[in-house]
Amino acid sequence: MLDREKPPPTLAEVARAAQVHISTASRVLHAADDGRRAASAATAERIRTVARDLGYQRDPTALRLRTGHSQEIAVIVPRLSDLVLATMYEGLQQRAATEGYTTYVSNSQDDQQLREQFTEAALSRRVDGFIFGDATLDPTFLDGLRRRSVPVVLVNRRSGDHVSSTGDDRRGGQLVAEHFSALGHTDCAVVGGRPWASTSADRGAGFVERMAQLGHPVPPERVIQTGFDAEAGATAAATLLRSPGRAPTAIFAVNDFTAIGAMGAVRAAGREIGRDVAVAGYNDTPLAALLPLPLTSVRSPMAEIGREAATLLIRSLRGESVQSRVFAPELMVRESTDPSGTAAAGRTDVVEAP
Amino acid sequence: MLDREKPPPTLAEVARAAQVHISTASRVLHAADDGRRAASAATAERIRTVARDLGYQRDPTALRLRTGHSQEIAVIVPRLSDLVLATMYEGLQQRAATEGYTTYVSNSQDDQQLREQFTEAALSRRVDGFIFGDATLDPTFLDGLRRRSVPVVLVNRRSGDHVSSTGDDRRGGQLVAEHFSALGHTDCAVVGGRPWASTSADRGAGFVERMAQLGHPVPPERVIQTGFDAEAGATAAATLLRSPGRAPTAIFAVNDFTAIGAMGAVRAAGREIGRDVAVAGYNDTPLAALLPLPLTSVRSPMAEIGREAATLLIRSLRGESVQSRVFAPELMVRESTDPSGTAAAGRTDVVEAP
DNA sequence: CCACGTTACCCAATCGTTTGGTCCAAACGT
DNA sequence: ACGTTTGGACCAAACGATTGGGTAACGTGG
What is the CATH number of the domain that holds B199? Predict the structure, then answer.
C-alpha cells in the first residue's frame, strides 16, 4: 500500500531499520548473485520482515539507471482500434507482464513516417526491444534496426527473414479456396488488403494458387486490394458486382471487416448473401458468428499469436536464439457461404485444418 | 540515430565537447528555470550545436530518478479489444504523447481483483497518474485512491464525484426514446449493459425516463442487462422475443455490439429488422453504417472523449483544478429503425442533437 | 601460535541528471 | 571611487539502487 503523501520507503531506510548496511539489504532482497554473498539466515530473515513491514518496493527507476535495462517493450501497431491487433496486443501484454516486462503501444496507421518517429522516440526512452505489428513486406526499415542491433520481433505480419509470430495465412487462403470449390464456385474474387501487408498478400496468394490448382484460375482483375476496413470491402465488392461480364459468385474478403462491408454491398446490389453470392472472411472475430447472417471465416489464434511474439522477444533479449512461429488456421463454415448447411453435411461449426 | 552498440552520449560528454560545465549544459538544453541562470547567447548556441552533432538525447531514466516524476500515465480499461475503449485509448495516448507523457494500458476485464492488482503494480512503478476506463458506479475503490492522493481521471464511465470525460449517456438514451416515439413505437425494450456501469445505466435510464414522459412507460422486465458484447445482445433479445404476451416492436441496445447480436436474434426469430422490430445501437462505431442492414446508432465523439481525459489528468498533475467534461451525442438514423426513411423526411444521415 | 580459508558484513564508486549554493568579474548607481 | 547588483559559469550534493572490493572475526590444521 503505497501512499502518495509520504514517499515510499527506500532501501536505505529498510537497511537502517534492520541495522545492516544498505548493500547487505540489497543482496538479501534481490539475490542477483545467487545469494552466495548474502547474509546469515538470521539477518536475512530480519531484513525481509522489516522490508515487508515497511512496505518496501524496489524503485524501478533507480534499478534501470543502474543496470541499464528498462524492462520495457515498445509495441507498434497500425491501429489499436483494429480488433485483430487489439486482441494480439492483449495476449502479448499479458505474457510480457508475467515475465516482468511492461509494454507500451503506439499506432503507426501504417505510415512510414509515424513508424519511424515512434521508433526513435521509444529508442530514446531506452526500451529493451520492439514488437512490430505493422511490418511491410519490404524489410528495409527493419533491416536498418537490425544493423543498429535493436532487438525486434514481428507479430501478425511477416517480413524478410525477421523473427515473427503469425498465422499461416497462405494455408488459410487455401482452405477458403477448397471450401468454395467444394461448393461448386468457379468464378471467385478476392477483396481487401494491401499488397505490402503479408497477411492479405499471403491469404490472397494462397487462395488464388489453390483455385488455379483446382482448375478455376482467378483473373487478376478479380483481386481488388483497397484496405482493411469495412468501407474498403464495400467499395471493392461494389466494383466487382457492377463489372462488365459475369459477376463473381463467391467473394473471399481478407478479413472480417472487409467481409462485413462486402456483405453490405452484395445486399445493396439486390443479391442474396450465401445464395447468390457467397462471402467468406478471415480471423473469426467474435462478431462473425453473431452477425444477422453468420459469416464463414478462417480462425487464427490471435491471442496466442500475440503471446508467442512476447515470448520470442523476451527469449531473444535473454540471448537465446529464436525462430519464427507460424500458427495453423481453421475454417469456420457458416451461412454466409453455405445457407443450407450442405457442404459440411449439416454441420455449421468447426472444420479442423488438416 | 541511436545505436545500440555504443551507448548514447551523455550530458557530461556534451559538456566536455563544448568546454563548459555539465550543469551549464543542463540548464541550456532544458531550461527548466525559465533560462534565467542559463549561459550567454554564444555559449548556449555552441552547446546546442554540439549536442545536436553528437545526437544527444536526455536519458529519461536519470531524469525520473532525479525529479521523481515518471511522466507516465497508467490506463486501465475493461478490454482493449472493445472498439470503443480502444478508440478512446488512441485519442488519449496521442494527446498524452504530445504533452510528453507516455501511457501504458492494462485490461481489467471489469474484475475488481485484477483492477487492484494492476493499480498497485502501476503505483509501484511510480506512475504519475491514472486514467480508469472501467469505473463502476460504486466509487469505493476510487475513493480509496483519492485518500492516498493518487491523481485519477475517469474516461467513458463516470463514478461518484470523480473527474471524468464522458458522453452524455442520459441524453443519448433520450434521443433514442424520442426517435422511437416519433416512429410510433409504444412497446419498447432495452438490452445489454451492466447495472454498475454508468454508460449503460444512464443510457437505459434516459431512455426509460423519456419514454415514460412521452406516455409509453417501459416495464422493468423489458430492461435486460446481460453484458456488453454481441452475445449478450443476442441472448437478451431472444428472451424478449419469446416472452409471453406481446413482443416489443423496438429494441434499444446499449451499444453497437449488443445491437448486432440483437439483430441476429431478431432475424433468427423470423422477424424482419426495421419493419417488424426496430433496433438501435450506441456509439456509432464505423461498422454501424456499413452493416448489411445499416444500424441506427447514437454517435459519441470517442476519440475526443479520450483526448479530453488525458488533458484533464495532465492539467490536474500540473496542479490546476479541473472538472468533468460531458460530450453531447448525436443520433444517426439508418435503416434498422427506419427502413423507408420516413422519420427524417427522406434523409438517413445526421440528425443533430439539440 | 601462525597461516589461511570462510563467513558475514561494510565501503564506496557508479549510473546520468537536476539544482541550490558559491564565486568572480563586470557593470552600475550615486 | 566605492559598495552593490547581476550575469555567467562552476561545484557538489542529491535521487535509489547495484556490485566489485575490502576487512574483521572465527575456526582449523600443522
Answer: 3.40.50.2300
Give the CA B342 to C1' D22 distance in Å: 91
* Total domains in the fold of chain B: 3
Tell me if B4 and A149 make a contact (CB, 8 A cut-off): yes
Has residue B251 been placed in a domain?
yes
Specify whether A229 is located in the same domain as A156: no
The residues of the protein lying within 7 Å (CB) of strand D read A 7, 10-12, 22-23, 26-27, 29-30, 32-33, 37, 56, 58-59, 61-63, 65-67; B 19-24, 36-37, 39-40, 42-44, 62, 65-66, 68
pTM: 0.89
B182 plus B146 within the same structural domain: no
In angstroms, the Cα distances linking B17 to A145, B6, B10, B23, B24 are 28, 18, 11, 14, 13
- Does A185 share its domain with A270? yes
Task: Flag if B287 and A148 touch (Cβ within 8 Å).
Answer: no
Q: Write phi, then psi, for A120 (nearest 5 degrees).
A: -65, -40
Q: pLDDT digit string (tens) for B80-98?
A: 999 999 999 999 999 999 9
Distance in angstroms (rounded) separating the CA atoms of residues B130 and A4: 13
**How far away is chain B from the Cα of A214, in angstroms, using its nearest Cα?**
31
- DSSP summary character for residue A291: S
The Cβ of residue A262 has, within 10 Å, a number of other Cβ atoms equal to 35
C-alpha–C-alpha distance, residues A121 and A115, integer Å = 10
Cell of B350: 445526421
Q: What is the pLDDT of residues B9-62, one digit of tens each?
A: 899 999 999 899 998 899 888 865 555 666 778 888 889 999 999 989 889 899
Give, in Å, how far the C1' of D7 lies from the CA of A88.
57
Distance, CA of B325 to CA of B308 (rounded, Å): 8
Tell me phi and psi for residue A257, to 5 degrees: -70, -45
Nucleotide whose C1' lies closest to the alpha carbon of residue A27 = D18
- Cβ–Cβ pairs < 8 A, chains A and B: 152
